[in-house]
Structure formats: structure tokens, C-alpha cells
Amino acid sequence: MSELEDASLLDRVRRGETDGAAELFERYAPSLLRFCDRMLSDRASAEEVTQEVFVKVISRAHQYDGRAGVASWLFAIAANACRDRRRRERRASVVPLEAIAEPRAKGEGIESTLVHAERRRAVRQALAELSDEQREALVLARYHGMPYAEIAEALGISVGAVKTRIFRAVETLKARFSEGERSWTAAT
Amino acid sequence: MDCRDLTALATDRLAGEAGEAARRELSSHLAGCEACRTEMARLEGVWATLGEDADAAVTPDFRRRTLALLEEEMIRARVKAFRPRNHFVRPLAQAAALLVAGSLGWVIARTAAPAGAAAAGSKTPAPSASNRAAAPTDLGGNPRLSNVSYEPPGPDGKVAIAFDVTTRQTVSGSADAPEVAKLLAYLVSHNAETAGEKSRAIQLVSEHYGAGLAAPSPEIVAALTTTLKKDANPGVRKKAADALASLTITPEIRAAFLDSLRSDKNPAVRLVAVDALAAAAKQSPDSSTIESLREKAVDPQENGFVRAKAASALKAINF
């Protein structure tokens, strides 16, 4: 999808075309929901915040000035909304197991399923323990493949700050995963 | 490269941000440093482990709920953006005042006593010599006397009482009888002096033809389209538009609505035009209608409601 198409979609939203908003949703809802889910560690909150993001896009479409890419602008709104949500709710960082429950893969034994679920839970837990700033930057880089420059645009920080945040996040996770490595190995 | 730089360089490489030179430097260092190779393996392990976290997916239910919410928000945003322009406020207020005054007048006229209820107004014309009659009017039929004025005794000692006599007549005929149609057209075109009277006449026409009792006569259509095009009062124009919309749309009516959509200053009238044109286009699509609706749907100068209505009308007729 090109920047031009994105900008034209926003233009349609600005003009009050419902179809434009629907198309923007189809393009960006999957990635924004994934981002919010990892930022909030709660599926229901992630859905609410993703909706908030699109509602804000409708009311702020006229404010988009084209200096940043549309994707960066959307993630900026999402990052702010997630921060607000976390501030408001002071959500405990404990991850409910059902938040990451998935259907068992075909042919996967119950033990293996549990181990994988445990590993996923541990990953989510480790992410939740990072600071918001580190998690935002890491999630955008690792799960969204966003270049540092775009992450910097979305988060309103310098590229250097992005690098630092990701670097620190990786350092923290390395230590965290090393602690759990033994138990995972034993389980598998 | 120093071993202390490993995590930063390795992270850049894992994130796809390391340039060619940095990648070469890292590879060269790793080839000769076992500790960094171990460390690099751990960092790659961290990156891979992060990949085990499952992606949240958009469920059909979330999609449906969110799209419904966005549609509501779009409507809300349009309503919020809608600001009645000042030059509509005054005419609308005037129209409303006229309607209220007209309705009150009508109620009073219907309930007042036949004689003596009318008061002489300052603009009451003096009785002309030609209408002067020595003999009193026949009051046996309880005629309604209105617009009464009184002249005190003149040099000849005579007083004069001037009044209009209103007699009630009933014209009956089949719903599509030409005399009924002619009378209704007359009521719309000529008989109404106030906006209230005109609106009531249009309402009468609308009830008569809109109920499907009869096909509208050319006189009626002409009276309504002329009112839609030319009446100065937006309330009356809207009433005429409503009446026309209740009829079977003919090319003449469609043309009047297209003209109204293009040039009527009142958004409420244009909204009726959009609805009527969309309904007509659903029955028989017509390029000028589609084009006009499309222009309105994207016209940034157009009122938000009209724009939205035109857009949803186009959607409804699959254009």
C-alpha cells in the first residue's frame, strides 16, 4: 500500500466518507490491534483502544499534515492511547492466561501445547515487564518490522533514542529469558 | 569493533537496520571471538523467542462492532461539522414565525363568531363609492364579515360600514376531476397570501395526490415546481419539495429537483431533493441524477448532511 493511497484514504475520511474509514480500518486494524494487544497485554482493552484509535482518526483527520507517514501517525495515536489506558487503569502487569490461549495445533500433544502456552505466556510476561517506552519501540521493530526512522516518527523521538530503547529492551529480555531457559528446557 | 558494542550492533542487525559495513564488521569480529559468538547466539535466541508470542487477530465480531462504531462516528462528525449558515437562520425563523402566525390566524378564523369578530385594521381600505350599497347585506345566511371598517357621520349625516363578505362554497368531484385539479392548482399558485396559507394549500395537494387518489395534473405539477423554484420562503419551498417527492417522479419533477439540488440555498430543501432523486434513480437510473449526487457527495463546500445523504444515496443505488 502506498503512502499516496493512505493519504487519499485519510482525505476521504476527512470528507466524511464512511467507506474511507472502513477501508482504513481494513488496512490498519490488524497491525494496530496487534500493537495494542502487546502494549496492554489484554485482548479486550486492546480492542477498545484500537477502536479509540479509529474514532480519533475520524475526528483528527483534518489535523494530519502529511509530514509523517500515515502508518506512523496511526501508531503514534495508538501509542498515546495505550499509554493513557495504562495510566488510567494502572493495569496489573500479570497476563491472564486466557489472553494468550490459542487452539491447539493439529497433532500437537497436550503436554506440548501446555509448554508452548507457557512459553508464550512467559514472552508476554517479559514484554509486560519492560517499560512502556522500551516495549513500544521493541514491538514496532520486532513485530511490525518498522524501520528505526519510522518508529522515531511514530513515537516522536530521535532515531538514537529508538536504538537505545530497543537495545535496553533486548538486554532486559536476554536476562529474563536466561532465567527461564532452564525451566523451559526441562519442560521440553 | 569492541566486544562491548556487540549487543547494539547485533540488535541493529536483527532489526534489519545494520548497514553493509556494520554487518561485515560484526561478522569479522564474530569469526574471531568465541565469547561474542555465544552472546550473539543468545541475542538471536531472544529475538526468536519473541516470535513465539501469538499475534492477536481481528475477529469477525470485532470487525463488525468497530465498523458499526465508525459509521456512527462518521455521522456524528458530520453533525458536529454542520454549522447552519447565518443567512439561513433569519429566513428560517421568519418562515417559522409566518407558519405559527398563519396557523393561529386559521384557528382563530375557524373558531371566531361569524360577525363582529373581525376587527378593522389600519390598512383597511375605505369603502369605494362603487361598492356602496344602501340596503343592508342579507344576514340571514350568517355570512362571515371580515375586514370591517367604520366611517363616522359625514356632512350628509350618513355613516358607512365596510366589510368583506366571505361565503363558503364546496366543490365536489372525483379525485381526478379536472375542476378539482384546477382548484387545487389555483390554491397553490394564486390564493395564498401568506407562507402559512401556501403551506396549507400545498399540504392539501400533497394529501390529495400523495395518497395515490389521482395522478397529478400538469397544472398541479407546474404549480408545485414553480413554488419549489421561486418561492422566497424556504419553508414553503421545502413543503413543495415534500409534496413533489410524494408524487410519481416525472421528467419535469426530476428536472425541478436537479435544479433545486444545484441551486436552492436551503440545505433542508436540498436534502429532500437528494432523497427524491435517489428514490427515482433506484427505479430508473439516470446519468444526470447520478452525476449530480456524485458532485454533491464530494463537494467540500456542501452542507455535511447533504453530502452524507448524497453519498449514502449513491451507495443505496449501487453507484
Polypeptide structure, described:
The complex is a heterodimer of chains A (188) and B (319). With 188 residues, chain A is mainly alpha-helical. Chain A contains eight helices and no strands. In chain A, 75% of the residues lie in helices and 0% in strands. In chain A, helix 1 crosses helix 2, helix 2 runs antiparallel to helix 3 and helix 6 packs across helix 8. Chain A is globular, with a radius of gyration of 18 Å. Chain B has 319 residues and is mainly alpha-helical. In chain B, helix 10 runs antiparallel to helix 11. The longest helix of chain B has 26 residues. The two termini of chain B are 63 Å apart. The relative contact order of chain B is 0.07. At the A-B interface, helix 2, helix 3, helix 5, helix 6 and helix 8 of A face helix 1, helix 3, helix 4 and helix 13 of B.
Care to give the gist of this entry?
The complex is a heterodimer of chains A (188) and B (319). With 188 residues, chain A is mainly alpha-helical.
Outline of chain B? rod-shaped
**Number of helical segments with 4 or more residues of chain B:** 13
Q: Could you give the count of β-strands of chain A?
A: 0
What's the story with the biggest beta sheet of chain B? 2 strands, antiparallel
Q: Which helices and strands appear, and what pairs or packs with what?
A:
The complex is a heterodimer of chains A (188) and B (319).
Chain A: H1 3-14, H2 18-40, H3 43-60, H4 70-89, H5 110-129, H6 132-142, H7 148-155, H8 159-187
Chain B: H1 6-14, H2 20-32, H3 34-50, H4 60-81, H5 86-111, E1 144-151, E2 160-166, H6 178-191, H7 195-210, H8 218-230, H9 234-245, H10 251-263, H11 267-283, H12 287-298, H13 304-316
